[in-house]
Amino acid sequence: MSEADGNGGGGVEPGGSLRRSVTPRPIPAAPPPGADPDAEAEGGSEEDSDMELLRNLLARTLGLGTEPPERVLDELSLAGIARFMQSERCRRVVCMVGAGISTAAGIPDFRSPGTGLYANLGRYELPYPEAIFDISYFKQHPEPFFALAKELLPGQLKPTVCHYFMRLLKEKGLLLRCYTQNIDTLERVAGLQPEELVEAHGTFQTAHCLRSSCRHQYDLSWVKEKIFSSLVPKCDKCQSVVKPDIVFFGENLPSRFFSLLQSDFQKVDLLIIMGTSLQVQPFASLVSRVPASTPRLLINKEKTGQSDVFMSLMGFGCGMDFDSDKAYRDVAWLGDCDEGCLALAELLGWKKELQELVRKEHAAIDAVAAPEDTSSASGGDPTSRRGRTDGSGGRAESSGASSEQRGDGKEP
Ligand code: OAD
């Protein structure tokens, strides 16, 4: 991935890897049909990507093949989005989400000033905050990551209203896919099935030995046991470090990300973006992959993903435009994600259903967690940032038991 604003001091990695760069690069083509879908990512070559970029730039500059996009919203507002969702035209919704949808569950986001993870890593004495998720740094110094993982591991957390709003979208037959940058697995706990998800930055659910000749797989409970004993997990077979399958800066995104986005983003009728600063590539550039007439709704505390003059000149003019007199399809609802989802649910006539779903699911999580207590499962430091309450009265820690109980804790 990369950071679109260029902070963080990292280099630009080739096409499909997680990177922090100034300019979004085109996403490589999907792997050829028949390619092993579980193989490590790499779509097209960098030359293919550069050709695609050149073609797009030329087409835009010369105005080739570009008709004025159709305006499908009757109003650029949440109400306009709700009316569109109730129309025949809206059959496939894609959600793109980030850390902001899980803050209400007690998990800090990354970049919020003061409370974000990157502002609170002082004790690890890192060369720069993102180093904690940088694969080169990790290979030399795995300890800071595992110390942090002790706090960040999926524990007894409850999905938020926002997660359950996506579950409702699925139940209404509208959810084509949820693309998440989060590694907390709360989408699964909320009831989204692996096939409905693209965990673009990986997941804690599985882990692998780092040695390329070994790559032995371990499960979450094995890793948890080591981490909660304050040990760096070492492979039983070869004693190399074992890394959870989350995507670090400098690593490739899962091949599933590249293969599914090709078709999903061609046929999506509505894109809903929630709780993300859209600072990290290649994920952030997905907003520009939807058809020109597809409405894009941002539900976030701040406006993100807007196009700027430089990007437009470079041919990357597809960032969102909420405010200019040319705006025709982008809507920003600014505020808390849960509140935004409730407001949209109300306009859709789903609010009671959503509230009831949250109540029922949280009660089920509490019921599973209660007999186990929090002692062994949480492993969490009760004073850590994870210990915030989730607003439903329940403590926001858990063993992930609900996802295991559902039997949906598999790798996609
Ligand atoms: P960020 O921390 O960059 O952005 C979170 C966004 O959510 C910000 O715009 C916040 O203002 C907003 N936000 C926070 N809480 C909210 C709430 N309750 N309601 C509404 N908005 C809220 O997190 P991401 O965009 O997810 O990668 O970060 C992307 C990637 O950067 C992460 O996946 C992570 C990180 O480096 C890895 O570590 C692999």
UniProtKB/TrEMBL annotation:
CDD domains referenced in this protein's UniProt entry, alphabetically: SIRT1 (cd01408)
Protein keywords: Metal-binding, NAD, Transferase, Zinc
Binding residues annotated for Zn(2+), in chain numbering: 209, 214, 235, 238
Record's compositionally biased regions (Gly residues): 1-14
Low complexity bias locations: 395-404
Cofactor(s) essential for the protein: Zn(2+)
Substrates-to-products reaction catalysed: N(6)-tetradecanoyl-L-lysyl-[protein] + NAD(+) + H2O = 2''-O-tetradecanoyl-ADP-D-ribose + nicotinamide + L-lysyl-[protein]; N(6)-hexadecanoyl-L-lysyl-[protein] + NAD(+) + H2O = 2''-O-hexadecanoyl-ADP-D-ribose + nicotinamide + L-lysyl-[protein]
Bias (Acidic residues) ranges: 37-50
Compositionally biased spans, kind Pro residues: 25-35
Residues of the Deacetylase sirtuin-type domain: 71-351
Region (Disordered): 1-50, 365-412
Active site: 201
GO MF, one example: NAD-dependent protein demyristoylase activity
PROSITE patterns: SIRTUIN
Superkingdom of origin: Eukaryota
Entry protein name: NAD-dependent protein deacetylase sirtuin-2
